[in-house]
Amino acid sequence: MVAILAEPRSQMRVMRIDDVEAVAAIETVAYEFPWTPGIFRDCLRAGYECWVLEQSGEIIGYGILSVAAGEAHLLNACVAPVQQGHGHGRHLVKRMIELARWHRVQRIFLEVRPSNRAAVALYPTLGFNEIAMRPNYYPAKNGREDAIVMAMELLPPED
Questions:
Q1: Annotated active-site positions, please?
Q2: Is residue 101 part of a domain?
Q3: What pLDDT digit, counting tens, does each position of 97-156 carry?
Q4: Who contacts 88 (Cβ-Cβ below 8 Å, separation ≥6)?
Q5: Alpha-carbon span 38 to 1, nearest angstrom
């Protein structure tokens, strides 16, 4: 008999101030130009939707969503590089979309680096469409990198 071990389930929960160091550590490993712990603390203080993705009690990802004036903006969504490729990013972004729907916003926006091929491939499968480019938006090793601006219309549920 062969036993097949299932990967532990991941779950989302609200980010707490004591999660910031773990979140910032993932950010530093994942990005060449990471957010600082202070930025994450500011997002919490501002009342943004700040969530972490946990697996076996360990934070493996996070998402930050701002909501205002009938729109939402996915400011940051990240899965620890060692945990990528297992559907965690899809799970995380779907949760952020659910939160935007809960807030009854009309659309959700995000920016993504063209060099982030995995994210560029993921977002359209979740319903995002490319709507614009922001030239020189991100810092990059050799200057600046453009941002692809994507949006999703959040239509009210059909009765």
A1: 111, 123
A2: yes
A3: 999 999 999 999 999 999 999 999 999 999 999 999 999 999 988 899 999 999 999 977
A4: 10, 53, 55, 60, 61, 79
A5: 52
